[in-house]
Amino acid sequence: MKVVKQRQRLEALDATAVFVAHDDPRALRESMLAGVSCPFPVLVDADRSSYLTWGLKRASLARIWLDPKVWQQYGRLLRSGERIRTVGKDTRQLGGDFIVDPEGVIAYSRPQQRDDRPPVAHLLAAIEQGTTSS
Known about the structure:
two-stranded parallel sheet, two-stranded antiparallel sheet, 6 helices, 4 strands
C-alpha cells in the first residue's frame, strides 16, 4: 500500500484513494490490511459487480502463477524489505487503477494484466495533469 505514504501529496491535490476488494472484510483485515494503518476507504464488493462494470477480468492460473515476471516482482519486493501479504481467495481476479475527476468522468484507466500495477508516482502525475488542465 505504497499510496498510503503519499497521503499528504494526495490531500494537497484535493484527491483521495479508494480501495475496492472482493474478499470477506475479516479476511482483509487479517491479511492485506494486517499491521497497516490505512487512512483511505476500503470498499468490499463481494459479488464483484464493480469489477465487471469497470471491465476488470480474471486471468488464467498459468498467467498468474507460471509467469516469471510475477516471481521476479515478488523477489524484488522481498529484497526491498516488503512483507508479502497473504493472498485473497481468488488470486486470478485482476484489479485496476482509475482516476475519476470531480465531475465523475474517468480521467485515467489502467486495467491490471498481472502483478503489474503502475508506480504511485505515475498515478499522482496523472492526477496533477488533470488538476492543472482544467
